[in-house]
Sequence to fold (383 residues):
Amino acid sequence: MANKKATTEIIPTLAEATAFPKKKRILVTPLDWGLGHATRCVPIIRELLDQGFEVLLAGNGQSLRLLELEFPNLPTYALPAYHVRYPTDSMVRNIALQLPHLVRVMAQEHQAVRRLVKEGSIHGIISDNRYGCFHTGIPSVLISHQVNPIVPIHLLRPGLHGFIHMLIDRFDECWIPDWPTPSTSLAGTLAHPPRPNCRFIGPLSRLEGSVGASNSHYRALFLLSGPEPQRTRLEEILRHQVAALPGDFLLVQGLPYQADQAATQIGNLTIIPYLNAPELSAAITASDTILCRAGYSTIMDLVFFGKRALFVPTPGQTEQEYLAEQLHAKGLAFATNQQELDLVQMLPAAEATQGLPRYAPLQGQDLLRQTIAGFVERIRMEH
Fold:
């Protein structure tokens, strides 16, 4: 695994980032709500690097740390932290309580990006759900599958959708990591219908769906992610219940800052803080069933393996509840809420499902490459 490196401040090290004036620089900024916004940026960053661009990373927290581990040689810069929490099971209450803070951070990150563009000669921006990371003077792209977010209170839906659409329209393009046809869509009504500036780029995953055989075998892989305190609460439930089950189990805590710590063994459960992309691909391949949150990026990862899954949506995240319910209703996976999780009964139920449809990575590769090619052409025309 890569060694840790400290995230730099924005201004003091910009001279270091301008060492290659002949290359076009793309700033990639993932949101810090869990790891999914960073993981789905990985194939985009790889494609940009393959096309000869210099990529700079900006963000904070665990999501930026994940990209540092994946790309240890890329410069990184600090952006304000959102520190979004889900203390209650009400999405509306959670967001309402934090809304002034979220708007303030959005304004702060916009100012930070403006400084980066000015001082670092940035030629383009690709932002994964950081709505403040755009610049009117250079091509700016938003990555998001939540064009039409789930709103449990119907009276609030038009207002929230209108606000989100306004934020999306500030970007030149919105790239949706999904299929363009509603019948094959993974995101469903979250992504359909799209905005006029939206482009579908196919599902994204940093993982390899076809990896070699593993020396280990697990009945289930517990793959944790998402904001605290719910990540820790789910881990505590799993640790308590797994001892009653036969078989071997692997728990990946999803803690990139602890990537250098060794695995520990507690009975039939192996616990490891973090796995990089090749290691996680091998672990998924070696596991019969995956228990995880129903985050969209996690679902995209799993469809490259065609695995059976037991989804436990993060309490208070209506998007995850919607995605899990859709897959459960189709018999492709089993879903339950965190409060009612019972491994003894529900793991066999998940093992009896059909399993997620398997997509080969090449299926969406052309969509992604075509979209990036258009982005590249726009940069070249403007610079």
Notes: Confidence is low (pLDDT under 50) at residues 1-21. The CA atoms of residues 159 and 165 lie 10 Å apart. The chain has two domains: 14-204+362-382, 218-351. The longest strand covers residues 25-30.
